[in-house]
Amino acid sequence: MTLMNISSIIITIIGVFASVFTIFMNIFLLKRHSKNRDDMVIFYCRFAIDVFIGIAEIIYLTFIIFYAVFNDFFVNHRTFLVFFGLLVSALGSVRSIVTLAISIERFLAVYFPIFYHNNQNYFSPIIIGISAIGFGFVEPIVLFGICSYDFDVPQQCVAFLCAINQCFFTFMRTHKSVNRLAIIDAAIVFLFDFLPNITRGQVSKNEFFSFQVGHSMFSCSFMLSFQNIGPYGAVSKCVGCAMEAYLVFKTLARKDSAVESKIKMSGEDNRPYGSQ
């Protein structure tokens, strides 16, 4: 085993641990906060999607590790690179649409509240969910339907992009450019929402969302893996999602602490005069 292969395996293991961390953090966020705010259902959908993506990433990266270490045994099963990689890619597409919907919704709610109030029904979680799932299903339909993929995976291939044919690779480049719209939109909201909160030095109403879109812009910029060395891009995305989950946790914990302090102060102010 070459030094390059060893370094690739180590980095892939880091991606597995990052995915495990992401799963537990998002499950914790779902259990702790899912009943607090009905107007943040889409955010909770994002948490759930990140859990599924984390599970898919663990399966995908773990298979790559075993494939690299026990190549002689797994070489006849390398088509699983396609199944697992396609699952991760499709879930990433679903996530990008949900992120885009969150970005647009929060942007309109903050800067165009009247327009948002009159058109709020268009941001129904059901509509967004159906659209996101439909967007994710496009990839397997194109791969097996339009591009007629026949599972011709090169023996030295250890990542999804080198396992697909040229037809689907061309589609992926175009398809992922659509995903970048979510990143651009998130960047706009990040600049106009998060940075002013930094200068004011306070936890504003939209700070939670700012962390979401700001780091989504960072993590989604590493969507594509390169071909024959290892899924470095996928690992970078796993680490980015783990960092994002931690930032969201810290933000919500800080907001919960602020709310509890206000409730405590309000209770003390309402005590009868002279009581201890």
Automatic annotation (TrEMBL):
Presence of the UniProt keyword ATP-binding in the record: no
Keyword Nucleotidyltransferase: no
Keywords from the named record: Membrane, Transmembrane, Transmembrane helix
Pfam families from the UniProt entry: 7TM_GPCR_Srbc (PF10316)
InterPro entries membership: 7TM_GPCR_serpentine_rcpt_Srbc
Transmembrane segments: 6-29, 41-68, 80-102, 122-146, 178-195
Source organism, top-level taxon: Eukaryota
Protein name (record): Serpentine Receptor, class BC (Class B-like)
